[in-house]
Design a protein that fits this description.
The chain is an alpha+beta fold and about 650 residues long.
Length: about 650
């Protein structure tokens, strides 16, 4: 049954083998004329089918290498080398089969994500939650936010949730590339797609299935698998010159020798399989290796672009910094009480997605301050939030925005790594909430690595105020800073940056426009940053900049392997064509030798599945919760934003 499936999967190669065997049998039985008719008829059908494909490709704007194969098949038929012609058909169909096999091998890590997608959730009904483990099995799409789920040993977590059990151990390797299990404590976030350890645990769902981490990754993988455009472009760069050289050599051989068979003998060795196969196999290998490392690249075009990157732009908060600001000071004005100021600001920040909002709300809750609802609230993107709290108009945001509504606003002096949220109440300046967001420990090393590896320009593009941005930039080694930018200004600056290609790295929802506009958009993590992840070309699933270096390294290694494999194929083909010009390689032998060239090209292209190790092999970035159990306990669903 397995062999029948293989035969069914590759009908062209199966039919060609049958035809070739029949033709050889007819020769043995003394019926060469019948064998020639069968071979000519089959090759004619194959040539016609290939020409139809060529026309469709031309209509789509793709001029490829199939013309060489067509000319070689027609030439061998014209000079009576019909067996060689059938072998060329076998070579082309066999090359496609080899490409498919190599592609399946390269896609194995990507497919593993799709095959493991959770489908059933064990939901505990309200009356069962405290007393028993009796569950109701529901399709994962029917799980609602707030449902309590039972995760049995070795089961896959179906949706993102908060751990209710005291502790739990989870294998997150399919999400982050981290091979060691991670320990979560009660209150810590557990991501869908993680594999539970040896004990049953309970979680409370915080997102629906469609919005959970694993399902977002699956969607990104589908997008990566569906993109094959760069492979075509890379091969096409060599198509016209290789075709021209092959035809010139074949014509020269014919003219010098005066024998038409010499034309066919040369072109047999010019069939385009190395060019058509090498790039797809290498790029699929690169996509697979990146996925295994916790980096989703949306197609081979991204690999090629990131391999050539010459400039990099970074957002600040959540990208170069940890993205978890903590309140470190309350500076009041106009006789406001500190707790009153914090309570009002936190109540207003309930209606904001800004990254500072989470830190302000968390600080108020830790002090036991009750947050009040607003009768009316609106958020001015990147500027601040305005809310009507208990009949008082509360404004929280950037100094310029707050000053426009409260003219007595006074700018605060901030220390290194600090940011400030300015507060006005009923048109009067109420004070400043000072938060600290320290740079990521790996940020300086990543910036240094990029500069040392052909990235000539590194800049910061941020909506934060100048002093805070300059402080963080200085600590991580960035000298060019553009601060207090609105999203359209970020897009304009990214479009004007030189040299190209430029890579933009961000994590917030309002980073989405500039990520989409950059040559390569890189989104830091998929947690709560759906818009950024959708707009980006690369999504880093681990909350660490170190994976950015790995992504660039994988891209460069993959492109290098693809180009080398192409040149191996071209070099061997041209060398063999030169030999064939002397008449030393008959058409039949040449067709068989070309199969070996194809095999060598494919085997080399598979090197993209492996490569140099990460420049940061000892990075514990995916296990930060292990090092800080308290942070793991407190870390809830991450709110994405930008400053």
């Amino acid at each position: 049954m397995r062999y029948l499936r293989v035969l069914w999967r590759y009908p062209a190669i199966t039919t060609t083998v049958v035809v070739l065997s029949g033709v050889l049998l007819l020769l043995v039985l003394g019926a060469p004329v019948v064998g020639r008719v069968v071979a000519t008829g089959y090759v004619t059908v194959f040539v016609t089918w290939t020409l139809v494909r060529m026309v469709r490709d031309v209509l789509r704007g793709h001029v490829g290498l199939d013309i060489l194969a067509v000319v070689a098949m027609v030439a061998t038929l014209a000079v009576g080398e019909y067996i060689a012609s059938v072998i060329i058909v076998l070579m082309l169909s066999g090359g496609e089969a080899l490409e498919d096999f190599a592609g399946r091998r390269a896609r194995r890590d990507l497919s593993a994500l799709l095959d493991r997608s959770p489908r059933i959730a064990h939901v505990l009904m309200p009356a069962q939650i405290a007393d028993s483990d009796e569950v109701t099995d529901l399709p994962v799409d029917e799980v609602a936010v707030g449902d309590v789920l039972l995760i049995r040993p070795a089961e896959i977590v179906p949706v993102d949730g908060v751990l209710l059990t005291e502790t739990g151990t989870f294998d997150e390797s399919s999400l982050t590339g981290e091979s060691m299990p991670v320990t979560r404590e009660a209150g810590g976030e557990v991501l869908s797609g993680a594999i539970n350890g040896s004990r049953a645990v309970r979680i409370r769902a915080v997102r629906k299935s469609s919005e959970s981490q694993y399902q977002q990754i699956v969607a990104l993988v589908h997008a990566a698998e569906d993109s094959h455009a760069p492979v075509v472009r890379l091969a096409d760069r060599f198509a016209v010159p290789f075709t021209a050289v092959s035809l010139v050599l074949a014509s020269a051989a014919w003219a010098i020798s005066g024998e038409a068979t010499r034309f066919a003998e040369v072109l047999v060795l010019a069939t385009p399989c190395p060019l058509l196969i090498a790039a797809p196999v290498a790029f699929l290998g690169g996509l697979s290796r990146a996925a295994k490392a916790g980096v989703i690249m949306k197609g081979g075009a991204v690999i090629e672009q990131i391999a050539r990157v010459r400039a990099a732009a970074f957002d600040k908060t959540g990208t170069l910094t940890q993205g978890r600001p903590e309140l470190v000071g309350i500076r009041t004005a106009n006789a406001f009480d500190p707790d009153e100021l914090l309570q009002l600001a936190a109540s207003a920040e309930q209606y904001s997605t800004h990254v500072l909002a989470e830190g302000i709300r968390r600080a108020a809750e830790s002090r036991g301050l009750e947050l009040h609802g607003a009768t009316e609230a609106r958020e001015e993107a990147t500027n601040g939030v305005v809310a009507d709290i208990d009949g008082r108009e509360v404004v929280v945001g950037k100094p310029a925005y707050v000053a426009a509504l409260a003219p007595d606003t006074v700018r605060a002096t901030l220390d290194t790594s600090q940011a400030a949220a300015y507060v006005a109440v009923d048109g009067r300046f109420a004070g400043v909430l000072v938060l600290a967001d320290h740079p990521r420990r790996e940020a300086a090393a990543v910036i240094s690595w990029l500069r040392a590896h052909e990235v000539d320009r590194v800049v910061m593009l941020t909506g934060d105020v100048g002093p805070t941005a300059e402080s963080v930039a200085h600590q991580v080694g960035i000298s060019e800073v553009h601060a207090e930018l609105l999203p359209p200004e970020k897009v304009a600056l990214a479009a004007a940056l030189q040299p190209r290609p430029i890579m933009m790295v961000g994590d917030g929802v309002n980073d989405a426009p500039v990520l989409a506009a950059a040559d390569i958009g890189v989104a830091m993590g998929a947690k709560g940053a759906t818009a950024a992840g959708d707009a980006a070309d690369v999504v880093i699933l681990v909350d660490s900049l170190e994976k950015l270096v790995e992504a660039v390294s994988i891209g460069r290694h993959t492109l290098r392997v693809a180009l080398t494999a192409i040149w191996i194929g071209i070099g061997l083909s041209v060398g063999l064509m030169l030999v064939a010009m002397t008449g030393l390689i008959p058409a039949l032998v040449g067709a068989l030798v070309q199969e070996l060239v194809d095999l060598a090209t494919i085997l080399y292209a598979l090197r993209a599945l492996n490569g140099p190790s990460s420049p940061f092999p000892a990075a514990p970035s995916a296990r930060t919760d292990d090092a800080d159990p308290e942070a793991a306990r407190q870390r809830g669903p991450r709110t994405s934003g930008v400053i």
